[in-house]
DNA sequence: TAGATTGTTAATCGATTAACAATC
DNA sequence: TAGATTGTTAATCGATTAACAATC
């Protein structure tokens, strides 16, 4: 695959395209166009065509894009044409909410285990998982070859847990802790902080 | 205030600066520099100076930035030098986790009420709030002059709820539903979807 | 064929970086 | 004063958009 420009920002939009394609499919559509996608997503049709063209030719002139086909292609590009096992760290309110979330599996991810270091929580049932001690983390990550983790611990615990995850070979961390994590290059962190979103929007209030 | 370029992307970084300043303060620091902030945040020092200079002059040559002072200035710029009341829609697992979250108030936001339309949930105690019926939403929003909402309902319910929120005059929506919301200009939506983050990172796996 | 829409090029627009005078 | 760091300018870099030939 040719990579003559960094696609980081483009890759960031592909999951949105994938989500919208699923939505359109549920509306009964079989075909869509860059214009329809653009309108629904609040982007320009040129941007969508350009983004897609970076990875290949997926449409037909005069017709548009076959939704199923484009979904398959995008899933392949994003490597979500398989299921990635995940470790969830933190069995607090948020951790339990994530453990109950049904939306991961259809999109290429599955929670394999949930960890906490509070003795009161260890052994508790959460969804169809039992909360394991943090001391089990290395073994589970190794045995299940886990490469993705969700971090749902308080901010003050996050740096140490992140360091452990990195050491165990985790290379993608979905971080719910309200703190900027310092990780080596090669490890990716995606940050989800409600306060960052709220403060951002507050500027415009 | 002069606005000769769109600061959207800059405004998006200010909450990160604010969060890092708090972190440095907790380490006992009184002063920081664009270089220190840059290293900790993984940005360039030039970018941080440029971002700040867009809103004013907050530093001293040779010295750097007084942390407390810069925090106060950034809070004022972002309009989080006050507390915004919020309505939370959805009393599922995620809604309850958000209702228990202690991190909103120190950052300028407070949950005023939580709503759901499931009869089983209405009246339940969640944190120190009682779950109210959706039919109460208009009254509460009006009486408390609420302008910010958190949407924590399933994707299929989200568009209708968002439309209601917009109609009631809500102008900032923190959206946890995995769907792109269509709102009029003037209403801002900040999207938090774990799957989007995971799929984005999966590209690099 | 006529109409529609893609994929792609070139132009435009905007964001980041490098460099440095100003100054603490 | 010497050293450090800001605020700002100009240069660079990258992303978006407009336009259109190709083609279904």
Q: In the CATH hierarchy, what is the superfamily of the largest domain in chain A?
A: NAD(P)-binding Rossmann-like Domain
| CA-based gyration radius of chain A | 19 Å
What structural class should be given to the helix and strand makeup of chain A?
alpha/beta
Separation of the first and last Cα atoms of chain A: 44 Å
What does this structure look like?
- 2 copies of one chain form a homodimer.
- Chain A is α/β, with parallel strands linked by helices.
- The first copy, chain A, has 2 domains: 8-78, Orthogonal Bundle (Arc Repressor Mutant, subunit A); 84-197, NAD(P)-binding Rossmann-like Domain (Rossmann fold).
- Chain A contains 8 helices and 10 strands.
- Chain A has helices spanning 8-26, 34-41, 45-53, 67-78, 93-100, 137-144, 158-167, 194-202; strands spanning 31-32, 59-60, 64-66, 84-89, 109-116, 125-126, 129-133, 148-151, 172-175, 188-191.
- In chain A, the strands form 2 sheets. Chain A has a 7-stranded mixed beta sheet. Chain A has a 3-stranded antiparallel beta sheet with strand order 1-3-2.
- In chain A, helix 5 links the parallel strand 4 and strand 5.
- In chain A, helix 1 (8-26) runs antiparallel to helix 4 (67-78) and helix 2 packs across helix 3.
- Chain A is elongated.
- The model of chain A has no long low-confidence stretch (mean pLDDT 96).
- Chains A and B meet through helix 1, helix 5, strand 10 and helix 8 of A and helix 1, helix 5, strand 10 and helix 8 of B.
- Chain A binds a DNA duplex (24 and 24 nucleotides) through residues 5-6, 9-10, 33-35, 44-47, 49-50, 52-53, 57-65.
